[in-house]
Amino acid sequence: MSDSFGLFLSYPGQVIKRYLSRERFTRVFTISLFLIIIALVAAAIYAITFGGLTFISNNSELQNGLQFYIIQLFGLLIFVLGFVNSILIIASGFARRNYQWIAITPSFSILAFIQLFQLLTSSLWIFLAIITPVLLAVGNFTGISWFGFILSFLLTIALIITASVTGTFSYLVSIYILQGLSQLLKRNIVTQSRAIVILIIFSIFVAIGLWRTAIPQDFVQFFDGSSVEQIDSLREKLILLPTFGISQILHNVLFDSTSFGVRYVIILVFLSFTVLIALYGLLRIQYLSIWQLLQEGNYVADKNVVTPNYKPYNFPSSSIVHTIIDKELLLIWRDKKNLLWLLIVIALWGTQTAVSWRVTSNAATYGPVENIPNFVYPLILAIGLYFISALALRFVFPTFSAERKVAWILGVAPISLWNIAVGKLLIYTGLFTLIGSPLLIANFVLLNFEFFPAVIYWIIFGLSVILIVQLAIFLSVRYPNRFSSDPETLSTTLPGLAFTTLALGGSLIISYIMYLALTTIDLATLLILLITLLSLLFTSLTYRATEKFEYSGEIIA
Amino acid sequence: MIELKGVSKKFKNKTVIHNLDLTIKKGEFYALIGPNGAGKSTLIKLLTGLLKPTEGDILLDGVSIVDEPQNAKSFIGYIPDEPTIWDGMTGFEFLNFVGALYNLPVDERMRNIRKLLKLYKLTGTENQLYQDYSRGYKQKYSIIAALLHDPAILFIDEPIVGLDPISIDLTKHIFDTFVKEGGTILMVTHTLFVAQELASRIGIFEKGKIIAEGTYEELANKAHLPTKTSLDAVYKNYLDK
Looking at the domain B2-75+152-240, which fold is it? Predict the structure, then answer.
């Protein structure tokens, strides 16, 4: 046990050492670029939060109520992210190669629990890029001490741990529900997919409840009254939120008094460790069945399991590009993880649109909505391009690397790699435009954007989608990864980070130019020309890359 | 007919194939055997157009795969040693997709697929996902995919790994018939009994060069070994030298 514990503790260090043992310069550069991107994102969050709080402070009637409301929303957002993240991780965790060595035995130990906990929190560290700048910005705005900042930070970490544990609990509970139903029905119905379906149904109900509580029917009434009345009335309405208590303490620490928070912070940190221990106890009892489910995909061995048949698709087109498009669509449809990912992005984008609708329809009840600040429209464009970049990073950028082991099928067929690239460009451009356009147009209609500028914005959006997809395909063909086909790993490689930097940086520049273009219309024409030229450049570079492409190294099995 | 003219392949500063000349006649079954790391897989990737030679040319039935890759690839079939396919496709969809890549009309494709599925006793499995197939099934599907468009030349990398004895016999029979009907085969393998049984000519490949070639009897004679010796012993004899 002590040997394995030692191995476990030294494992992360060994991974880093091994990672830096080859191509050290490139890899140090990759890590640096990654950290720079994170720092830039954090800086942007800091600037927006600090700027927002300063803007709010100009309105003496609203400032206290809005600040209270923002901290409540912040707590809720962090909780939801932690909750969803933990379910995604636990549901797919044991499929990750790096963790299989610990999952090899079904006997439960503290080591397995730590590994499970590490599995849950390993992807949470990225949250620090959101939490730290927000807390720093609020802390700087209110002028709290470093001690207060550390307290607020600890509180937020406790909130994340609680969210992760609650997510894991919910997943286990959904499995227990299925186990109970299996006993009632006298047949095994426990599968991971069904557990996820139960959670999705549960989440929809929770989301409706949260929406009704946190997004008010009437903002004017919501923030009505003097400062004290406002906060009291908000407290009354938001008390139903699961994160209300912890967010209230966070608000007190950040805005009122550090000393007030100390004892609550200690209690909350203690409580989060208590739920962690409760999870340990629960897992200790049920680990074998959970282990089997995660390892095998089935709760019990069932000799009557029938391998499912699928309705076949016979690729009827005689066009190669069309055949490639059909293949991509079929594989997206069949991959549940990809579909879930697509749905999450659409849900997030849809929520942002729904908030626009809620705010404007509420404002409309008090008279015609006028004077929407000019920066809102380019901001909507930037948000749209951000979502498109995230989709392209997940679906398009890994596309050639992900096919390395099946490259023999395409590589020996009498087709050019260029046709494959064109097929991928068409399908992903079409798909992303189809997803993005209705949401973008809905935002513009809701925010009373004038027709002509809205059309120009939509054209810029469409061209930017082509440019982002084209960039992802170029980097994928030019720098295919010979070692990994995992989209999450690929996004942290040097080409992956280059794509993230260029796509996000480019999206911000495009949105800023469109902000300026609201007063200088010629800029929009110039931008259309620039994006078209860049797309042509990447098309040409992709063509050259396909001509030189070889299925070398580990790209082919 | 397969012709290699002064073919070399370098990866950065490492030369894997050295100025290789080789001619395999139409209707010939050529087996290439050699130790791990000899460059056999690189050679087969060059022949199938997955890699491009650093120097030299490769002609397949007179068509250069370097200059006219799409034309040359239209009449070759390839059976890999690791038959990995997209997990989200069924066997039937995979075969249809491959048929579409070779521009086979749907009717002809369906006819060929049904015939080959029946031959390999896979009828009834074709609508299951690839991820649910055993190693042997995957290998059979990759063999069917290579034969679907009725190729003139077959490149085979370890053809019988994962197959059951009956399927091995069937595969050997299919290859034998293919050659008798005028097809050409180049096979890379470590399974020497298959090479000994089926190949009309055998090449021993080491460090990117063919160090010996001929019929099995010729190889045994050159090594001063009785012709009843197994290919295994002949092979070891050449490598020991």
Answer: Rossmann fold (3.40.50)
A322 min Cα distance to partner chain B (Å): 10
Distance CA A168, CA A283 (A): 10
Per-residue pLDDT of A393-451, as tens digits, reads 989 998 887 777 788 888 899 998 899 999 999 999 999 999 999 999 999 988 888 88
**Stated length of chain A:** 557
Asked if residue A388 lies in contact with residue A465, where contact means CB atoms within 8 angstroms, the answer is: yes
**B96 neighbourhood in chain A, CB within 8 Å:** 312-315
Nearest to A331 among B51, B76, B88 (CB): B88
Distance, CA of B91 to chain centre: 21
| Calpha distance B45→B32 (Å, rounded) | 14
- Given a cut of 50, is residue A521 above it in pLDDT? yes
Of the residues A315, A482, A552, the best mutation for testing chain B's interface (the one with the most B CB atoms within 10 Å of its CB) is A315
Is 70 exceeded by the pLDDT of residue A486?
Answer: yes
**A299 or B227, greater pLDDT:** B227
Question: Given CB atoms, is A550 within the 8 Å cutoff of chain B?
Answer: yes
Looking at residue A343, its amino acid is L
- What is the tens place of the pLDDT at every residue in B28-65? 999 998 888 888 888 999 999 988 999 999 999 989 99
Integer-rounded Cα Rg, in Å, for chain B is 18
Q: Does residue A309 sit at the B interface (CB-CB below 8 Å)?
A: yes
- The answer to whether residue A233 scores a pLDDT higher than 70 is yes
Q: What would the mean pLDDT of A485-507 be, rounded to a whole number? A: 85
